[in-house]
Amino acid sequence: MERDKLIFCYVMVAPALILTVGLGIYPMLASMVMSFQLYDLLQINAVGTPFVGFENYIAVFQDPRFVQTIVNTVLFTIIAVVVSIAMGLFLSQVINANFKGRAVLRTLVFVPWFVPPVVASAIWMWLLQTERSPINHALQSMGLIDTDIRFLTDPSTFGPFSIPMMAVAAVRVWNGLPVIIIFLLAGLQSIPKGLYEAAEIDGASIMQKFWFVTLPMLRPVMSVLLALLVMNGLGQFEINYIMTRGGPQNLTNIMAVYSYQQAFMFFRFDYAAAASGVILLMTSVVCIFYVRAQSKDTLR
Amino acid sequence: MDKMLKLDRARSDLMRSVARGSLVAITSAGVTLSSIAPALAQDNSIEFWTQSYGDALQWNATIRDLAAEFEAETGISVQHETINWSVAFDTWLTVSRGGAAPDCADMYWLHSFSAIGGDQYGPMPINEYRDQWENLDENFFEGSLQDVTWQGDFYGIPWRGDIRSFIYRTDAFAEAGIEGPPETWDEIVDIATELTERDENGNVTRWGYAYGTATNSVSWLLPYYWQAGGDFMTEDGRTATIDNEAMRTALTFMRDLMWEHEVVDPDSMEANYDPQPGFLAGDIAMINSAEQSWGVELDRDYPQLEGQWAMSLTPEGPENRDSFSGGGYLGVLRGTDKVEQCVEWMEFLSQEDNMATLSRVSGNVSTRRDVMDSEFWNDRPWKVVVGEALEYARTSQHPAPAWSAIAAPEPGAVLYDMMYDAVVRQQDLDEVISRAQERMQAELDRSNVQ
């Protein structure tokens, strides 16, 4: 009986396992191997793919553009995670409340979810195009600005930040917010109402209820969310690539875009694999922290 | 208890049968596929991929009609698949490294893909079939045949050209009382300055000039550099030759247009720059290096602009009037066992009538002289200009596998970085060019490793 059950379980899990191994684990391992080889498509027929140790890693770290992409990737991730969670917390509270028109608001908030990132990028590229931007027109009509804001092309910086970086980060937040709200909404709805009633009896204000009841009760959801957002943020690709190709002046370039450019523009699959290896390392660190935290929670 | 046992047994039977069922399904699928595969290999059909051109539906219908006609003549059926341009480069790169490939296809960047594929994958030389095309040299433009020859091998039939001319808004010219398009670089500066307009806050309402129509910004540099008398590399493709006065002249001209004369949008080299909406709205007065497909598009999609735009030859530089030309060819892929069927199909497509159809539907210049002499390519003034521009067309292909990496329109590529640093960032020209020369040489050396 137990054996049958085991076989049944394996058969049921097999398709997902095969897909994960075939499309996830194998390419990842192959890419890691490639990162230690000379894998230049323009030389491959002449010299093959000899083992070169850490040379590719050294080469990408010697490229100032790559170092800047690491900084950019971390900054983008921090901006996207912090803003998304802050907005998500606020909007999920609003949506969770009982008021007239809640269904309409919910629909509006979830609309960006139906827009694939590629389409979202194209739409926002148009909205943020300097001379034809309706946002610029609106701001000028209101008398708030005189000259057009170069949302995606202004190369001036303030510290490590720039307008294009903020604009692209805003699009990433816009596109990813609905999922965060769904997570948080589910978390909010699982908080027993009795806790709020008890807090009210104790005379807690709205902020105190949020701080001492909502946030602690959302902690498990938030930790999952945080881990997912950080991992997703470190591996982001399409919005940055489509909207700016990493420009202007590398200000919005991120590691995944760098990796893609090395492989598919310059035929350096070895450098691309090394850059991907760095992304893998960074996401692994987050993953380890997350798994350890989960394990501790389970043991508790 | 009995009931529990029965239930357990039933569940156990169910699990077993599901497991067996799955195994049977997987095995039978494998058996079916393995029995179908040889049958497919033996059939008389070929797989043919093309990029999409012009109106995608019309393009597919045209290939379908041609394939039906071909099948009626020869009994060979053609399975056509379209590749979107946005993934075309990645697709051919994958094909050149052993990815799923068709038997024959519409391809480009021969030098890079054949070098990457080596003698295993990618484009296949078909020297032994070359004689099947009678009067190849007389019927086709010389430049287009260069694009299908690599290291002395013949790889296929050129079928489309991408010829760049000069496009301008005649209404803006008339409004400013300017009689004709610029003929020289100096005239570009004068006219662009006159046509650039700003509002009271200094926001530009009309740019006098744009470098080019293509999204590939590096392609804008090529004609300026050629017109200044430069060559990117030696004929053998081994030595970079960009650190010279011609490059300084070309980049200075481009930089001055942007910053000294302020007639070009400083965002021109950014990824989200697209001159088409601006030109259509009359917010850009002239564009150098305009693809001929713009003529087709403007005729087809914007009839209301009739009489408000025109094309002319690209203005002459200090040394000559060379203009950009790209192209594509029909070729066979390594790994196919249907070379003869593919060659027959290519022969069929390269007949005058069929080439005329492909040219008309795709909006691309034909590589056949007789097609370019036909009524279709002479019934509109802009088409006549495109025909004349063929005389000045210079192939953008260069005899080095690394060329597509060198000229990639992305940050990090040699020419893009050089243009960006020189034109947009206004860095010291000598340093920028010297750095680019060194990087380009390294790229050429990389692709010439024996």
From TrEMBL, chain A:
One of its GO terms (biological process) is transmembrane transport. Pfam families: BPD_transp_1 (PF00528). It is found in: Cell membrane. Coiled coil: none annotated. One of its GO terms (cellular component) is plasma membrane. Gene3D superfamilies: MetI-like (1.10.3720.10). It comes from the Bacteria. Its main location: membrane. The chain crosses the membrane at residues 7-29, 70-91, 103-127, 161-188, 209-231, 271-291. It is a multi-pass membrane protein. Belongs to the binding-protein-dependent transport system permease family. This is Carbohydrate ABC transporter membrane protein 1, CUT1 family. It comes from Pelagibacterium luteolum. The lineage of its organism: Bacteria, Pseudomonadati, Pseudomonadota, Alphaproteobacteria, Hyphomicrobiales.
Automatic annotation (TrEMBL), chain B:
Transmembrane segments: none annotated. The keyword Hydrolase does not apply. PANTHER family: ARABINOSE-BINDING PROTEIN-RELATED, POLYGALACTURONAN_RHAMNOGALACTURONAN-BINDING PROTEIN YTCQ. This is Carbohydrate ABC transporter substrate-binding protein, CUT1 family. GO terms for cellular component: periplasmic space. It comes from Pelagibacterium luteolum. Its main location: periplasm. Keywords: Cell membrane, Lipoprotein, Membrane, Palmitate, Periplasm, Signal. Pfam families: SBP_bac_1. It is found in: Periplasm.
